[in-house]
Task: structure prediction
Amino acid sequence: MKQIALLSLLLLLFVATALAQQSGPAELILHNGVIWTVDQNNSTAQAVAIRGGKFIAVGSNAAVLKLRGRSTRVIDLRGRFVVPGFNDNHVHFASAAQFLEFNIMRASTQDQFVARVKDVISRLPKGEWIVGGFWGAYDEWAAGSAGNQRREPFAPDLSLVNAITADYPMFIRRFDDSQFAANQAAFRALKLDLNNPQAPEVEFLKDSQGRPTGHMRGRGVTRLFNSVVPRTFSRERRVQQTKNALAEIRKYGVTNVSDMSDEVQLDIYHRLFWAKELTVRVHYRYPLDRWQALAMHITNVDSGNDWIRLGSLKGHIDGIMGTSSARFFQPYANDPNNRGRWRPLMVNDKGEFVEGKFLGYMRDADRAGLQLTVHAIGDEANNVLLNYLEELNKQNGKRDRRFRLVHAQVLAPGDFKRLGQLGVVAEVQPFHLSDDMRWMEERIGRERTKGAYAFKSIQASGAILCFGTDWPGTSASEYPINPMLGLYAAVTRQTLTGQPADGWFPDERISIADAIKAYTYNTAYANFEETAKGSIEVGKLADMAVLSKNLLKIAPEEYLTTDVVYTIVDGKIVYASSASSATQTRAALRKPRARI
Result:
C-alpha cells in the first residue's frame, strides 16, 4: 500500500510539474483597466493575461500580474475601458473593399469629386477601371436628417477629370441607376466618338451648348459597357483592396465579421491567413442556392479553424427599403402601385410568386444540418419567412437551428411574439435606423414604421438580438464599419445630428450594456461560436478592444467621439492608435521593451 501511495504521489508531482511547464508566464498582460467582460458570472475586471492567443487570467491587477515573466509585454491601461472584440454580424467585404477604394455617394461638390478621383488614381496601376460611384444618394434625403431635408442635387462633371484619367477608364453610376457617366478613356475603350456617340437604347446627355457630357441614361447603357468593363478586378487589385479593408476594420476594434462575398474573396482570406496577414476572423456564408456545395465542404473538409469558418447559408426573400423594393402587405404610402418585390428564388419565369419554391431550398439545406440566414425587410417578407420557419419545424423537426432573420427590419404587430417562439436570432444593423429614417415614414407611413427596427420588442419576444453594420451599405445608403454608430443608434434612436430630440419611437431604445452584448457575445452565439468568442473569459480567444472612454458612464452622444486605442486579435495587437504609446510600460521584470 505504501508503494502504491508513493507511486501516486510521484505521479501527482509529475502531472503538476508538466502543467506548470505547459502554463508558464503570460505573453501579454493588460492591467489597470475597466474591463467589461460580458461574462454574466464576472462582469468586470481590472486586468487580463494572454498566452497562446487565449485568455489565461481575468481578474484583479494583483492576481494577473503574478503571471508576468521576463518576456511578458505589460500594458498599463490607465483606466481605459475594455470590451470583447466587436463581432459584426453582417458585412459585404468585397463590396466594402471596392467601396473604400472609390465612392462619391456623399459628394456634394465638384471639388470633392475631383479629390476622390485623384486619390483613387494615385493608388491604381495605369489601365485599371474606376467603377461604382453611386452619386446622389444623399440629395433628396440629406445625411443626418430625420426626413424632409434636401440638398442641392449633385452630378459629377467628367470634363474636370478627363485629363487626369486619360489612363484610367471610368464608368460610374447614380445610386438608383437612373443615370450613368463615363470618361473619355472609357469611350475610347468602346471605340465611340465622344463628340458624336451612337448606341441603341442609350440617350447621351448634352450640356447647354449641345456637347455630350459623358452622362447617359437608358436601358442600353449597361449592355453597352458590359462589353468592356471587367466583371471583376484582377487578383492583385482585390488583394490590395482586401488589405485596405482590413486596415479599416482594425481601426474600429472589430475582430470578427460574418461575410457573404464571392469565393475569390474566401480564397484571398485563406492566402492571407497562411501568410499571417489576416487580422480579422471570418464567418463565411455561401448563397442559399449553393447549399450542396457548402454541404460537401462541411462533409469532406474541415469547416474551418479559429480564423475562417464555414457553415452558414445566405438567402434573400425581398428587396431593400432604399430602392422601395422591400415587400409589404400594403402598397408604399408614396407609391400606391408598389408593394415591393420578391427576389428571384421566390418567383417563376413570369415573375409570379411561387409558394414553396424558396422553402424547398430551405428545407433541403436545413435537413443537411446547415444554418440558414435569410434577408427579409418588409412586413410581408418577414411574415412569409416566419411561416416557412414553422414549416421547417413540421417537416424536419425542432432543433437548435439559430435561424438568423437577417435585418428583421419591419415586422407586422402580430409577428413579434413568433420570434421568441421560433428561437429566431434577429440579425439586425442598428445604424440602419439612424440613416434610413430620412425617408422611412415618407415611404410606409408612421403606423407601419412603429414596427421598424424595433429592438426592444424583438428583445422582449425572447429572440436573440445580435448587431452588425451591413458594411458598406446599399446603393442608396452608406453604413460604415464603426460599431460606435450602431451602439449610438440602438441607445438613442437618433440621427448622427441628434434628431429627433427624444428619439424616434423611443420606447424601442435598449441599454448600452445590452447593445454591447448584442455586438459581441450575441453575434458569437449566432455563429455557434459562443464557447470560443464574444466575452472575456479564461480559455476563450483573446480578442478585445480598448476604448478611449467608458461607454457605461458617458452620455450616448460621446460614443461618436470614442476612439479605439488598441485592437487585439488572437492575443496580438493589430492596431494601436497614436494615443496608445503613453500606456505602454516596461515589458519585463528587468528588460525594457520598445514602445508599441
About this structure: Residues 1-22, 585-596 have pLDDT under 50 and may be disordered. The domain at 235-533 is CATH 3.20.20.140 (TIM Barrel). The first strand starts at residue 28 and ends at 31.
